[in-house]
Amino acid sequence: xxxxxxxxxxxxxxxxxxxxxxxxxxxxxxxxxxxxxxxxxxxxxxxxxxxxxxxxxxxxxxxxxxxxxxxxxxxxxxxxxxxxxxxxxxxxxxxxxxxxxxxxxxxxxxxxxxxxxxxxxxxxxxxxxxxxxxxxxxxxxxxxxxxxxxxxxxxxxxxxxxxxxxxxxxxxxxxxxxxxxxxxxxxxxxxxxxxxxxxxxxxxxxxxxxxxxxxxxxxxxxxxxxxxxxxxxxxxxxxxxxxxxxxxxxxxxxxxxxxxxxxx
Length: 264
Hints:
six-stranded mixed beta sheet; two-stranded antiparallel ribbon; 30% helix
């Protein structure tokens, strides 16, 4: 575990970005289980790094158990859901990491950068404290509206498109040699982000599944009610399957999920 520099930490529940995880974070541990195939891509990108910083670590998804991991998470609700075998998370934000320069071999952030108040400042901080690769699992905002959810809840999709930073912003803030590649989403993906349900639409009728996707917290109740009503209607009538039924047997979906890797 890396040593803190003594910088003051936050003391509230702390959802440091635009979503209140004291309210929406209670279901994450159950619905956002790390998928082993996504985990393999992240682990490969970390290379042979022994010390790893996980920023916006949440409940600990995708933290490699065979490395020396330091987790940073500002929300007390999320820190409380970390399993006991993982290290306790440091109460801090991406924009003000309490570590010395070049402390870690590598750093990572998974489904986190869109939550930060100042994504560019947070990425510069990650680069400052990292000797080697910075690995970011995120979504390309240009592609999120290709998902069928946009037909039922365009307000949710537009919220996601607004919140996810452009890949060019990530590359510019990280500097160095930055690459990005699409990550296929398996049909039985265990991590319950929106596109993981591409072939299992019924799952999104579960309010806890939606609660575990933060974009739903930015839309009014009538949007959620309309979504449930219209999706259930189309599932019952067969209209959804008539249009999208091939997705139910598609082994993997090429959606907006991307892995961004920056080498110093």
